[in-house]
Amino acid sequence: MNRVVVFPFACLALIITASGAAAEDWKLLKEKDGVAVYTRAVAGERIEELRAVMKMRTTVDRLVAVHLDGDNQAKWFPKCVESRVIRRMSPTNLWIYRAIANPWPIDDRDYVIDVNLTRDTKTGDAFVSFADVKGALAETRGRVRMKKMAGYWKFSPTGDGQVLVTFVMRFDPGGSTPASFINMALSRIGTDTFDGLYRYALASGG
């Protein structure tokens, strides 16, 4: 039986928020259609960390609902061709499987993430963390299991009918794809992710 390894939520939050001690300052990589994309190098990581920020005219509740709807994330997450909930521990904690299609000759990727929601009743902020779960599913032929996928989404109401959305992600697709190639694609990953999320949130009731 495969050994399942999960980052406890408290540990993941500590790792992400304290990562500045082992990372450079954020550098603005790109601004497009209201999305600001930043990256920074992190000690011991071959792929730069990604941060994207945007204001969206929607609600915190709508964005939370989209992220907890694990069976429909292929409708908005870039290049995602399959998504499904494989385990639900509570209404705010679930495991989601995603498969990501890549153009030839790069192999498709997949992973399972442990998703956790916490909310601040005073500020109205919502925090959705995610971290890959090792050994949750057997590997699928034709898909390379990603080495790392971790980060968070933060949704903060601004008081003017908008939500400030912050997305932070560290990942490593594994395999033989050069790090330089992946780092060059980070700006597109940031803008495409926000574009897909915003369009889906609006179209599905946001």
How would you explain this protein's 3D organization?
The chain has helices at about 10-15, 60-70, 180-185, 185-205, and strands at about 25-30, 35-40, 50-55, 80-90, 95-100, 110-120, 125-130, 145, 150-155, 165-170. It starts with 8 loop residues before the first helix and ends with a helix. It has a single domain, classed as Alpha-D-Glucose-1,6-Bisphosphate, Chain A, domain 4 (2-Layer Sandwich). The protein contains four helices and ten strands; from the N terminus they run H-E-E-E-H-E-E-E-E-E-E-E-H-H. The protein has about 210 residues and is α+β, with helices and mostly antiparallel strands. Residues about 1-20 have low confidence and may be disordered. Strands 1, 2, 3, 4, 5, 6, 7, 8, 9 and 10 form a ten-stranded mixed sheet that branches. Strand 2 and strand 3 form a beta hairpin.
